[in-house]
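Lab meeting notes turned into a lecture example. A postdoc, R.K., suggested we walk through two folding results consecutively so the class can see how the record format repeats. The first protein's sequence and structure tokens come next.
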Amino acid sequence: MDKNTKKIKRVAIYIDGSNLYYKLKELEIKNITYFQCGNLAKHLAGKDREIVAKRYYIGVVRVKGGDRKAVRMQEGQVRLFNHLRSKTEGFSVKKGYLMKNDGVYHEKGVDVKIAVDLLVGAYENMYDVAILISSDTDLIPAIQKIKHLGKEIEYIGFSHKPSYGLIKNATETRLLTKNDAKQFENIKKVKFAIK
């Protein structure tokens, strides 16, 4: 390679789906099911870097005994998964599960999957830069190891609720505003949005 030729950095995108959902909901973004995550990924990677992987992590709803809320949530997730896997979005969906306890759903297994995939990608030299959309501080040990392995990790958070732990540990931080998120809102399919 010519020494004047700049190496194009390989980027892997990791999205904590539940975290993204609640942050967008707080910003009053409509129709989160059809949020344009693919365009957001392109925007974050920029023109001078190559996206080599796009992964979306989420706890999957299990329906038991005619629970109508769970049925509606599951139907919404099916639409979300189909949207994310479409040609325009191009995401690989990585599933954890949702556990219902005292009427409240709790996500299980998602953080571990993100951490493992981040580390495997670093060890196997899959990427130069990992872009992480999550505010979960449980990921800090994985982030520290990734940096130790010579990889960069960009924390993408939201300006209204940043994670100071991730800001402190990431190589780079970008905080999205409501206006940033609005440009990826898909208002054409609002009638199918999850309530």
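The second example is placed directly after the first for contrast:
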Amino acid sequence: MKLSKEGKGYMLTKIYTKGWTDDSIWIINTPSEMAMESLFYVQEIGLFYCLPDFYTLHENISSFLISLTLLGECEYTYQKKTYTLKKGDLLFVDCKEYHTLQLKPNKKWDMIWVQFNGNSAYAYYSEYIKQKKATINVGEKQYIYKKLTEMLELNRQKSVYCELLNSKHLTDILTELMILSGTVRDYRNNSLPDYIQMAINDIDTHFMDDLSLDHFAKMTSISKYYFLKEFKKYIGHTPYNYVKMVRINNAKRLLKHSDMSICTIAVETGFNNTPNFFSAFKKKLGMTPLQFRKCSRNA
């Protein structure tokens, strides 16, 4: 079967064969306006027990696909490369890009999947794909499988809370993918190294000072290049950007709760001069310090 629709200069394409067993599950949703504006929302979700003639092709479809292989094998083509999905392999792709899924001869494939979208879906995908491939093996980890099965059952029941819970489950799945792919460090079983915690404490206390990489290298007795790499790995920001963030947070506090002048706040929070303060503040918050103070006082 082929579904096609003219878009703005391109053709939306979804081609598939009904190559799955009768006890497979396929649910199609129409999200509410609220869900489309504010949440991650499920467009389609299913559990397929695929037969040898299974085939699907997506292109130029505004959604993202997450599928988890439960049993068997499947070949998928994405970004001009062909791979084999096996048990435990999770696939996360942008359905606007051309991709196909097809079984090898005399093979079967069981998979649970969800097709979804949301305002920040592409941001998660962009971070995930930095690992340079669309798949990741989740092995024996049951967390994502549990979330997908809970979401599948939720959409079968169609409760009044379905859309909110869908968004929660999708957020949990995407967060787990960020951790598994190495985009976000997992702190659930790990604490910060002492030298990173030392640097954080120093920044939080002396953010108004000149805190260079040389300063941190001397303080921690670690090469500044290694320190830079490790700080970004653990904190998610470079030391420079973290210092700037702490300075702006303290500037917001002074703007809101003091009568200090803008020039004084710029000095007190470590910015070299008022123009630099204005530029950094507006770039981060989308408004000037004066506008922020006015909004905060009127709130």
